[in-house]
Design brief:
about 800 residues, alpha+beta, Immunoglobulin-like
Length: about 800
């Protein structure tokens, strides 16, 4: 660290300009290095090139060389001074056209020749654009159409004999595909593919303005259209984008020329000078800061030697771009308290010095200090490069920087867009005391989290060991799923029924063991837990399996009373004393008493929901019994009853108008096999963290089960039992279940089922022989089985 003194703020004290050599501007930079600068211990690496600059003679004195030169009608064979078109042909000749009715001038490096309407078939003497196509033909855009010259003959194109939008052609381009583009005065752009014409205007495209003066295809194939008044439009083949003085560094919105040089930089000739863009920063050359003959630039060319030619309203300016970069930037860092650090090494600052100013300076052989620009970036803070825009802007300020490590990078850029070597300053802002304490707290929290993870890992391993020890196997076979945590799938069907049961009866049907009973049990659970603001649901699960018709109403009432007991306690109901001969009238009386008691306990509307399992038994009852049950549902008390019927299928006779069940069910819901997602959940979720099926094992279970939930449970139960029988162990993580495990388990199931069928068949034959011997003439075997999975 060292005192700031007057430092680099007085590095440059005086710039002396002299005018010499054919009236062209030549600048000699003389540095006056006062004692205060020397006393500031300026680095020797910076002093030496600055001293060389101070004693260097003017550029013109060194052999008369200047990077700028102007050609006009007084010092060359140029036909006119207003130059709007420049071309270097394949033979190296330079062609110049303009609006002074002078036709076209050709310069071969030694002599000049002009072509006009008098000595050629040029369409008009006002030539605003020149192009040489891939065949070597020359195209001249004039105020009266386009002329093509193949070296021997001329041909003209106008709106009368082609698809050209207007006669006044200001720009011509041949793209990579060979298409010709013509920019017109007020007609937009016309494209000619050799067969047909197409026009683009502000009405049918994203073109900024219909007055198109320049067209360019860049290295990426994008088309650029310079307009007079609308800025520049870029077309990538699909979309358009416009650049103006408001959203870019373009000098003016009147763009008469566009060039991409050999380095990839874009040059835009405008009515306010030449704007250059290198992808990072913009720069504008004018008569004030360069040797440009006039600020109205309507033609730009880079010849084979790399020199740039600018066609202006006052002649042609040639510029040979310099390649010598500015000297390395000198960099200081100034903190909040005014302390100055050099850019050497690592700089560490306390949290209290978060406001930082960077000072920098450079020098150049050709560019004045006021015209130097700097690009800089604070890595870790700035998302993009920043560019200075004002003369003598040699500082960058940052305020309230967060704690952390940053690298400041800065480069000087001269008028030729040469960049100096970058200067770097690496700084670290220490955390605040609060942040330090917070970091310690975070570290402590992290240690606790790691400890918790270790404990959790140990618990998981312990849980696996204990599960294996107690032969954990959660799958069910032959029993309905009553617990919610073991029920997977059917969520959409459950939601549909729960949304409808307020005011409608529902029928659930599906093949045997498809999960109807489990579905009813889950409805029972959800209705009990429902927190509906308007309804109090009291579900009553009733299985009709083995219930004779004469016991139907007694069975229904006993289940209803048992379900309502938590709400109203025990009542003096008829069913409690009349177990025989209990009929539909007794049911209605008891039901009305229960409802009255329930109404006294809540302000909500009541819904007693009968979950009727094995509902196919109703088909075997006398139709009179069925009709009586319907009357109960249609009675005054029945207004509070809702029935969810479950069975194998809807009887076709129920659809008849004479059926007791005609038009009773608002929803008839079919339960199909599981979807793939539902089947995967049923396979994996019950044993998650203990066992893990590999991909082939899962595919085999899906194949064998056909996605039927009962079959999935059955196969998984047998598979896990096989794994347990093998006493398989794993040090960490769940135990893997393989395809072989599933295949062997399924083979065992298939063998067991074959034996069961054989035993059943033998039992049928023996029973039939016994019945025949006893003289019985009818026999029917109940094959329904128990329950419904």
């Amino acid at each position: 660290m060292r005192g700031r003194g007057e430092g680099i703020g007085r590095l440059w004290e005086r710039v002396q300009r002299t005018k010499e050599f054919n009236g062209q501007a030549a600048e000699r930079v003389r540095l006056i290095l006062p004692s205060v600068v020397l006393s500031a211990a300026l680095p020797l690496a910076l002093l030496i090139p600055l001293l060389l600059l101070s004693v260097a003679p003017p550029a013109q004195a060194q052999g008369g060389y200047s990077p700028w030169r102007t050609f006009n009608t007084w010092n060359s064979g140029l036909a006119h001074n207003v130059v709007q078109a420049i071309l270097q042909d394949s033979e190296g000749n330079l062609w110049f056209g303009g609006t002074s009715f002078g036709g076209v001038s050709r310069y071969d490096g030694a002599s000049w020749q002009s072509f006009t309407t008098e000595n050629s078939s040029l369409a008009a003497n006002v030539v605003q654009v020149i192009l040489q196509d891939g065949e070597g033909d020359l195209w001249f855009g004039t105020g009266w159409g386009v002329s093509r010259y193949d070296g021997a003959s001329w041909q003209s194109f106008t709106p009368e004999n082609s698809g050209l939008a207007l006669n006044a052609v200001r720009a011509i381009l041949q793209d990579r595909e060979g298409n010709l583009w013509f920019g017109t005065r007020e007609g937009g752009v016309s494209r000619y593919d050799g067969v047909s014409w197409q026009s683009f205007t502000t009405e049918n495209s994203g073109l900024a303005d219909n007055d198109v003066w320049a067209i360019l295809q860049d290295g990426e194939g994008h088309l650029w259209f310079g307009t007079w008044g609308g800025g520049v439009s870029r077309y990538d083949g699909a979309s358009w984008q416009s650049f103006t003085t408001e959203n870019s560094g373009l000098a003016r919105n009147d763009v008469g020329a566009i060039l991409q040089d050999s380095e990839g930089n874009l040059w835009f000739g405008t009515s306010g000078g030449v704007s250059r863009y290198d992808g990072v920063s913009w720069q504008t050359l004018t008569t004030e800061n360069s040797g440009l003959a006039d600020n109205d630039v309507e033609a730009i060319l880079q010849n084979g030697e790399g020199a740039l030619w600018f066609g202006t309203n006052d002649g042609i300016s040639r510029h040979i771009v310099g390649t010598a970069p500015p000297i390395i930037v000198y960099l200081n860092l100034i903190t909040t308290g005014g302390q100055v650090y050099t850019s050497t090494g690592q700089i560490t600052l306390p949290y209290s010095q978060r406001d930082i100013t960077f000072e920098f300076a450079s020098g150049d052989l050709k560019t004045d200090r006021e015209d130097l620009r700097y690009v800089y970036k604070l890595e870790g803070h700035d998302p993009d490069w920043q560019v200075t825009t004002e003369p003598f802007q040699e500082t960058a300020r940052y305020f309230d920087l967060p704690s952390g490590t940053y690298t400041f990078v800065v480069q000087a850029r001269d008028m030729d867009f040469n960049y100096s070597e970058p200067a770097h300053a690496r700084i670290t802002i220490l955390p605040s005391p609060i942040q330090v304490y917070g970091l310690l707290g975070l570290l402590a929290t992290l240690l606790l989290v790691l400890a918790a993870i270790s404990i959790s890992h140990w618990q998981a391993s312990h849980r696996i060991r204990q599960a294996i020890k107690r032969k954990f196997n959660p799958y069910l076979s032959g029993l309905p799923v009553r617990e919610p945590d073991m029920f997977f799938g059917r969520e959409e069907a459950l939601a549909e029924v729960l949304d409808t049961i307020h005011n409608n009866h529902v029928a659930i049907y599906g093949e045997r063991r498809i999960g109807k009973t489990s579905f009813l049990h889950q409805l029972d659970n959800r209705l009990r837990e429902a927190e509906d603001p308007q309804y109090l649901f009291i579900p009553a699960f009733v299985s009709l399996q083995g219930v004779p018709a004469e016991r139907l109403f007694y069975t229904l009432m006993s289940v209803i009373a048992r379900s309502c007991r938590p709400h109203i306690g025990s009542l003096d109901l008829i069913y409690a004393t009349k177990k025989e001969g209990y009929d539909v009238y007794d049911l209605v009386d008891d039901l009305e008493m229960v409802l009255e008691a329930l109404k006294a306990t809540t302000d909500k509307q009541l819904r007693l929901v009968l979950l009727l399992d094995e509902g196919d038994e109703l088909n075997e009852y006398d139709p009179k019994v069925q009709a009586r049950l319907r009357r109960v549902l249609m009675s005054k008390a029945g207004q509070h009853l809702r029935m969810i019927w479950s069975g194998l299928s809807i009887d076709r006779e129920w659809k008849l108008g004479t059926s007791p069940w005609y038009n009773l069910f608002a929803i008839e819901k079919h339960l199909p096999p599981f979807t793939l997602d539902e089947a995967l959940r049923l396979i994996q979720e019950p044993v998650k963290g203990i066992y893990r099926y590999d991909k082939d094992a899962i595919e085999l279970i899906l194949q064998y089960s056909e996605h039927k939930p009962f079959r999935i449970q059955q196969i998984c139960l047998a598979t896990i039992n096989r794994v347990l029988a093998q006493k398989r162990r794993r040090v960490t993580g769940p135990i893997w279940v393989t395809r072989e495990d599933v295949e062997r388990a399924y083979q065992g199931l298939a063998a067991g089922e074959a034996i069961s069928r054989e035993v059943a068949e033998r039992g049928k034959v023996g029973l039939l022989e016994k019945q025949v011997a006893e003289g019985q003439t009818e026999y029917q075997v109940n094959t329904d089985g128990q329950g419904d999975q």
